[in-house]
Amino acid sequence: MDRCEICGKPTSSHEVSEKIVCHLCWEENPEKIEELKEEESKRKESEIDKIKRSGERISEELEDAEEAERATSLLEDYQDNLDLANEKNARDYVFSKIIDDACEPLSDKIFEVAKKEGWSFLLDLIESHPPEKTPDSMPIVNVVSRYVILTRWERNVEDLPVKALEYLTNFDEGMDEMWDDSFTCGWGFDHPEFDFVGALESAIEKGQRFWAVGALEQVFYFDQESGAEILINFLESEDLTQDEKYDLVQSVALLGHKKWDTTEFVPHFWDWKQVLGYDGFEWDEEVESDLREVIEKELDDHVSKVVGEWDFYDLVR
Predict the structure, then answer these.
(1) 183-208: pLDDT as tens digits
(2) So what's the pLDDT on residue 265?
(3) Is the CB of residue 50 less than 8 Å from the CB of residue 34?
(4) Among 168-177, 280-289, 292-301, which is the least confidently predicted range?
(5) Whether the Cβ atoms of residue 192 and residue 158 lie closer than 8 Å to each other
(6) N or C: which terminus of the chain has fewer CB atoms within 10 Å of its end residue's CB?
(7) Across the chain, which distance is largest between two alpha carbons, in Å?
(8) The dihedral of CA 66, 71, 73, 74: what is its sign?
């Protein structure tokens, strides 16, 4: 049992930040209670300030981090900051500050190193920072997602490491930006050693079907015919409910829609369309027609609620 911070007697009555006070002292020493609160507040502010300054330092030192070893060292510092913020219950207060000061430039720097060192460098980071032990690994997820797109665009699907694609299947809806960036797993849809459709099915079974929606949408940017084929197979499956099928249709609902273009933030911090010279999504008329036909057949109850001519955007949930 803990001891009272004021009188030293065993107690578990009242908690003042991280300190324990017995009920008697709580009632009879209000001034001392306020002093304890003030001390704890100052201590916490000092710890938070230390974390913030460390985040700023990381950002400054990134300019000189040209080599893999230095970039990796700063990544460890960044992770230590987030771990400390969590440990001190200061996450909400400092997390955005750390993201603003360090996450984007750190991701940029690691990406530059990755382009020099290749996939071996990133695979080492993945192995040393597994998702289950590194819940705040945004720079790694971000750079892996960038390099997946870059590799697929410039080379062949076989040049994508299976370990990298499998890594991107480990992030669920509660992981915010990392969840978004993990959608780029879809760029490896036809890898001969990676079961992309199986990953979608697994996500649906686990109640993470909107991850499946995001990953399937990515397929369309590279090969809309293949994306449509995968979606049609799901729509014609007898194993899915109408609601599950309707959710999967969300993968095409925003394609080419200027107001809601998910390529603007997947992956974060990197405009792949501009970098790779992608002109934007436009439907192939035959692919669009075939897909509309299947949607009308398999989801008649939903489509019939749309008055007049409809397009995929009308099916947005």
Answers:
(1) 999 999 999 999 999 999 999 999 89
(2) 75
(3) no
(4) 168-177
(5) yes
(6) N
(7) 80
(8) positive
Residue owning tokens 């009188």 = 7
Q: Nearest 5 degrees, angle CA 280-CA 260-CA 135?
A: 100
pLDDT tens-digit series, residues 215-261:
999 999 999 999 999 999 999 999 999 889 989 998 888 886 655 55
Half-sphere exposure of 156 (CA within 13 A, CB side): 3
Q: List the end-to-end C-alpha distance of the chain, in Å, as a whole number.
A: 52
Tokens 């460890």 belong to residue: 76
The first and second tokens of residue 58, run together, are: 């990381």
- Per-residue pLDDT tens for 94-136? 555 555 567 888 888 889 889 989 999 999 999 988 887 776 7
By DSSP bridging, strand 14-16 and strand 19-21 are antiparallel
Please identify which residue in the block is written with the tokens 């036809």: 190
Could you tell me the two tokens for 257?
Answer: 């829609």
Nearest to 141 by CA among 86, 185, 189: 185
pTM metric for this prediction: 0.77
Question: CB–CB of 203/212 below 8 Å?
Answer: yes
Residue scoring higher pLDDT (247 or 31): 247
